[in-house]
Amino acid sequence: MPSSTFYVHEADVAQIHHFLEECSLCGKSLSGDIFMYRGDTPFCSEECRQQQIEVDRAKHRRKKRAAAHAVSVRKEHRNHHHHHQQPQPRPAIDANPWGTARGPALRV
């Protein structure tokens, strides 16, 4: 199992100390256990960490839905645009040489 401890060079301690001062979600001062997420986001508790995970999941789902919607809109637009550019069928030419419309047949 990999170790959860790591060595930090002394020159980086001040920068890291500032980074690990407060919870990324609630802003509470960090002391004692620090709960990390994605390796770069510190939280004061497992609850704050889990809330951030859920927020990120919801954002990811919205992005996926928006991307899928954009693809379907583009596809629909392309099909709609393509449909209008095809030549429309012309009505059959009437056998009447004078080009006048025929009325209903009269029965006597």
Automatic annotation (TrEMBL):
Gene3D superfamilies in the cross-refs: Cysteine Rich Protein (2.10.110.10)
InterPro entries with a match to the protein in the record: FLZ1/2/3 (IPR044533), Zf-FLZ_dom (IPR007650)
Zinc finger (FLZ-type): 18-60
Domain FLZ-type: 18-60
Gene Ontology MF: a single term: metal ion binding
Region forming the signal peptide: none
Compositional bias of kind Basic residues: 58-67, 75-85
Keywords: Metal-binding
UniProt cross-references to PANTHER family, sorted A to Z: FCS-LIKE ZINC FINGER 1-RELATED, OS04G0585900 PROTEIN
The protein, known as: FLZ-type domain-containing protein
